Amino acid sequence: MKRQTLEQKLAILSDAAKYDASCASSGGTKRDSRDGRGLGSVTGSGICHAYAPDGRCISLLKILMTNFCIYDCAYCINRVSSNVERARFTPEEVVTLTLEFYRRNYIEGLFLSSGIIRTPDDTMADMVRIARTLRQEHRFRGYIHLKTIPDADPKLIEEAGLYADRLSINVELPTDRAVKAYAPEKNPDQIRRSMADVRVLKEAQKEKSFTGRRPPRFAPAGQSTQMIVGADGASDATILQSSTRLYSSYRLKRVYYSAFSPIPDASKVLPLVKPPLMREHRLYQADWLMRFYGFDVGEITGDRPDGNLDLGIDPKLAWALANRHRFPVEVNRADREMLLRVPGFGTRTVERILQTRRHRDLRYADLLRMGANLKNARPFMSLLDWSPRRLADAADLRARFAPAPVQMSLF
């Protein structure tokens, strides 16, 4: 086998890491400048963007340690039976890449995942060694996110949390049945045990010892997980119910939804068509509504018989259209819960409304200054100087929210 250069390995393993969801954006338009026109790209691999615990958007070197893998998960392009070009970084090479990229101001941290080589313990030990070397030998202060391996020794995962800002353990698919069907070497119970261990270790950090000292910091940015969407036929309702359980059971910071990418030689057991990226985007929107707006799964998905989200409009607007009897909302009188359900009102807008109306009644211009999306909100609210009249009951109300038509090019 021809010896690969570091640049060749980086090209292979940064591209292989694109299936690991870690980025802040989702469902964006595919654009790049590889044709020589323009500048920049949203489809390239190697550097991604994620949010730090304090809300900053930071650039991360996003790579796999290796795309060799002893597992044969049907949905994974890097599974053992897949015919892809393989590569493997040594721990020293990952450390070198991270430091050199950081010194050149390309990145502010590292996102590291890996296929399973030899055994889960061997792979996890190498990942921990990378994080430990960066932190202890090179005093690296940047952000580190490690995708940990649930089958590895719990002591290795515990050590990983001492060096990484965030840990993540993939639940893979929405249901245990799907995991057993498409990833038979993975054990859903073991995945949950590992996630529970991380939660316990994270919570133990808050407790002081008898000397009054706190234990060493452990994954200060918490833990997250990734769920593949569209490989097993699960409805959006099933996916969101699974996410709800994960958030409550393991105190997750984020569930990442990753649209399944069809793999040609797995077509006998998996679909050939990739689910639209808009479905992934709608799931993120629904997830946000459940976490910050007080919605539950039944409200968001209950109006469609198949349990899936409407791809044409966002979930909050879809709910409002299906529940017109609850509108219009009187902005100067409604409680916080109902204000949060008005399309076009975000959490900050609602807080500003509540603060301002302690002193006076609000008018239409006030909402404009507060940043409310009044195009969406107008049919669902009333104010001193605004009433939707019959607009909320208009038969063509949904069509009013459709994007403007665009003339397609003939060439």
Residue-averaged pLDDT, rounded?
A: 88
Total of helices = 15
Strand order of the largest sheet: 1-2-3-4-5-6-7
Strand content: 5-15%
CATH superfamily of one domain: Aldolase class I
Beta-strand segment tally: 9
Architecture per CATH nomenclature, i.e. the level-2 architecture of one domain:
Alpha-Beta Barrel
Tell me the structural class: alpha/beta
End-to-end separation in angstroms reads 46 Å
Order of helices and strands: HEEHEHEHEHHEHEHHHEHHHHEH
Assign the CATH class of one domain. Answer: Alpha Beta
Taking pLDDT < 50 over at least 5 consecutive residues as the criterion, the unreliable ranges are 24-34, 36-44
Give me the CATH fold name of one domain. Answer: TIM Barrel
Query: What Rg do the Cα atoms give?
Result: 24 Å
Report on the biggest sheet: 7 strands, mixed
Amount of helix:
25-40%
Per the principal axes of the C-alpha atoms, what is the gross shape? Answer: globular
